[in-house]
Amino acid sequence: MQSKLYFYMISTTDNKGGRRPLILISNDDGFEANGIRALVDMVRPFGDVVVCAPDGPRSGFSCAFTAVDPLTLQRVPNARFLRNDYSDCEEEPDPSLSVWSCSGTPVDAVKLAIDQFCLDHDDPSHCSFPEARLGRMPDLILGGINHGDNSTVNNHYSGTMGVAMEGCMKYIPSIAFSTCYYNHDANLEPLRPYVQQIVRRVLDEGLPRGICLNVNFPAREVFEGVRVCRMTYGQWVNEVVRRPHPRGYDYYWMVGQYRNDEPDAEDTDQWALNHGFVAITPTHMDVTAYAFMDHLREWKL
Predict the structure, then answer these.
(1) Cis (ω within 30 of 0) for the bond into 36?
(2) Which of 39, 124, 162, 204 is spaced 20 to 30 A from 174 at the CA atom?
(3) Residue 214 contacts residue 283 (beta carbons within 8 Å)
(4) Strands 140-147 and 48-54
């Protein structure tokens, strides 16, 4: 087991001219989703915000990125994003917020944002939007707020967690936020004090290298508190529905029901959510099973 934790720490004003932290936000529900708009509103007091998110839903894309098709990147007017306003209103300049949509996955969105806006390239022609170049890396990467539970094994499928893991792989403190409300019009305001408290603590104290946070909220407006817990062992069952096509072949729907394989374990994220608690699960980028390594060496392969 690793014996040291290396923390990456920042504060609400960095040491380079008193600038506010830079927060990069993406999701897997698309830039028009209520959850990402709510998250931006919750965290704007803590820093300058860049939103770069898919142009539509990308649930279940996990850490996938696009390697075959070309990607596009488009600026979204702040008014359209913040107020869901599609009228041709005059844009008010706001250097503390920029919003972008991309045609790829959540991880594509993070990679594009870092490459096009954050890295300080020697060749200015590398960037399609030179006026948007920031010349500094994000201090914090956030995914969400996802409309749907990303606890237990959903962690591995989630594009929201893909955002946090991508940040984690770049050694940037990262958090994924999800709510068990699947209704995209759900009231997310009760999440505000918890999101802000978690973001503030991570900005102030950092996170260990290679660790991000998976934060899930139960489907309710009053919470019993916060629990730090482990991932539940469970699995999806009855996952495929076969249907006959009128042209003579079969097609399939991916569906399924979740089965909790340890429903009585009280230290898990599912138990916490089922009992009204906000569940926070620290998640490793390093997937090495250290406890099994010595036994595996005994196989003498």
Answers:
(1) no
(2) 124
(3) yes
(4) unpaired
Tens-place pLDDT, residues 45-59? 999 999 999 988 888
State the Cα–Cα distance between residues 84 and 35, nearest whole angstrom: 12
Nearest to 198 by CA among 160, 228, 165, 155: 228
Closest C-alpha to 112, from 128, 96, 95: 128
Please say whether the beta carbons of 100 and 50 come within 8 A: yes
Percent of the chain with pLDDT over 90: 74
Question: In the Cβ-directed half-sphere of 139, how many Cα atoms lie within 13 Å?
Answer: 26
Tokens 């503030």 identify what position?
200
How many CB atoms within 10 Å of residue 283? Answer: 18
Query: What span, in angstroms and rounded, lies between the C-alpha atoms of 263 and 227?
Result: 16
Sequence-separated (6 or more) residues with CB below 8 Å from residue 284: 210, 211
- Parallel/antiparallel/unpaired status of strands 22-26 and 48-54: parallel
CA 278 – CA 190 distance, rounded (Å): 11
**Predicted confidence (pLDDT) per residue in 64-87, tens digit:** 889 999 999 999 888 778 876 655
Residue 25 is which amino acid?
I
